[in-house]
User: Fold Probable DNA 3'-5' helicase RecG from Actinomadura barringtoniae.
Amino acid sequence: MAKLDEPLRKVLGDKTAKVLASGLDLHTVGDLLHHYPRRYAHRGELTELASLEDGEHVTVMAEVTKVQGRTLTRSPGYVLEITVTDGTGELKLSFFGRKGSYIPERDLSPGTRGLFAGKISTYRPRSGRPVRQLAHPQYKVVAAKNAEAAAQEWADEIIPIYPATKGLDIDAITKSVGMVLDQLELGADPMPELTLKRRGMIDLRDAYEGIHRPKDWDQLGRARKRLKWDEAFVLQIALAQRRLAAAALPAKSRPAIEAGILDAFDARLPFDLTEGQRDVGREISEDLALEHPMHRLLQGDVGSGKTVVALRAMLQVVDGGGQAVLLAPTEVLAQQHFRSITGMLGELGQAGQLGGAEHATRVALLTGSQGAKVRKATLLDAASGAAGIVVGTHALLEDHVQFADLGLVVVDEQHRFGVEQRDALREKVTGGRPHVLVMTATPIPRTVAMTVFGDLETSVLGQLPAGRAEIKTHVVPAEKPAFLARTWERIKEEAAQGRQIYIVCPRIGEQEGDEGDVVQEEGERRSPLGIMEVLPRLEGELLDGLRIGVLHGKLHPDEKEAVMRRFTERELDVLLATTVIEVGVDVPNATVMVIMDADRFGVSQLHQLRGRVGRGNLPGLCLLVTDAEVGSKARERLDAVASTTDGFKLSRLDLEQRREGDVLGASQAGRSSSLRLLTLQRDEDVILAAREEATALIEADPDLEGNPALAEELAALLDEDRTEFLEKA
Ligand code: ADP
Ligand code: MG
Assistant:
């Protein structure tokens, strides 16, 4: 009998075990059982040969008519060509290799029927007609072609198609899985019996049987339901434990007080808070009053006014005698936050200075590039408590940075900080934990919020401040050169009216190690445009006479700061930049965003970039310049961005277009991801239900003492490298 942790070698023998280990990284019985079929073939779904299209992944059922080996002049030296037909058309199968090697010559003789799976391409011989072919298809021989009954059975049979590997065809994997299933010995079911009953779920043995050897689609459906549940549930158990543990920690309570700096700030705000800002503000205010650390994720679309919300939270902590830190991912952003916070606070931020108000505090900026003198003063202000608010970059995390009484950590743009960094800040707090507010401008679909960010409470700023002008977005495609010409005209017109323009390129260009997470697609393409390549053309020709500044990550921080300041103070008309301006940059006078090679960016990135314009009451214009062809995926993506400014809609689209692994941040999507069946795109209801059940279970049995089998599952999950993505949250 074989338990889940039994080495495959013992069940399948050395040879097969070796191939499974090297090709698919499967080592134990459990590994193989969790290597689920990628899909299932079924005669009803088979494609007719006559209707095949290039690039399609297909499974066809056909009969071998001709087998021919050919010696090639070039490597690998030999090709076995097999012609098959299904009566509607012909297809050529090519297997390259050494003569007499593992090539399936002996399996596929004329008259044999088989299933063939692979990607269709067209082979164009030097003479004669082009031929449709499958190169190195996976195959499975199907016997008993003349027996009526067998044919019927065969027609109904569900054939699991496994992600195969070199040296093992589908058949061999199917056989191995069958052997393992036949000998399988399962321990106690990790899932609580009551949960299974309540959710109408089958037991684990039936589930493994049903996913690997389904007799019908219903059985397969039940199996998938059960296994999917397990994935969602164990993940949610892990998250529920983290939430509970965090909630049990001590923190200093910072309740709102009357007539303090927060009230004074509210009184001088030049605008009314939106309803969302007030609601979220209340949630945060209540959290801060608790004696356990707040752990909240604040989501709000670009321009929804998160900074004010965060600042109000910081001021409540200052009122409570504490300090707050705002951690920004880049120097540009830190500087900008510093500017806008000191601006909004006015005299309330000038404690100890002439003109400082009654409840005033001090705001300090700490970045890596500051001179020793400035830095020393800032460190002193932080350590003495004179600075109620400290804005900064990673420099804030260094050991020598001390606080008198750190009460709140605000992290802007979470995804760029890891949990170790949050912990580094927490250690600066004695006698408890700081409250933590994480802000993200990339709207997160609910399923992602419940998984990747599952240990945080979430607040959403759903509406933009009133009076926000609209942003128009247009695709400027290669097939309409007049549009591009018009783009440069338009920029000049805006500049003539005193407005400012951003032009973004995917790369710096003419430099090594470029920045920017540009979308790479298959195939040969020219390299994306760099700003250093574009600059001479803009200066010399297209935008002659305009004042153009350049901003990218490789500049010295002082230069960055200087360029940003010149742009903010309208000494520049155009800012030519990489995605360093993606998040947070706030220059209300900027009205046009031109994105070159826009197809090289992801949806969320484009949305973020677009959010840099239309921030005041001036209408914004966003131009997506691309040579992606009509009908291509890239072009669809751009059309989608042009069609809506709803960040949540776009983030769902982004999620659909990305692989799960990218979403979860796991480095090796696929293999070690605990999510094999569960998808963040389609399984919101499963995730929601699992979250409810898991939360209830952990509240009743925090250490899973009454559920040892589940505790074991959890330990296994946390062991694997995908803790990484939990950690990232
Ligand atoms: P984001 O959520 O993208 O960080 P910001 O906090 O930078 O947005 O706010 C965008 C702009 O809107 C800022 O200039 C800010 O001063 C302004 N703003 C914020 N809240 C309001 C409001 N309630 N009414 C009008 N303007 C607001
Ligand atoms: Mg912001």
In short: Residues 261-461 form a domain with the Rossmann fold fold (CATH 3.40.50.300). Residues 512-523, 660-672, 721-729 have pLDDT under 50 and may be disordered. Residues 271-274, 277, 300, 302-308, 441, 465, 586, 588, 615 surround adenosine-5'-diphosphate (ligand 1) (CB under 6 Å).
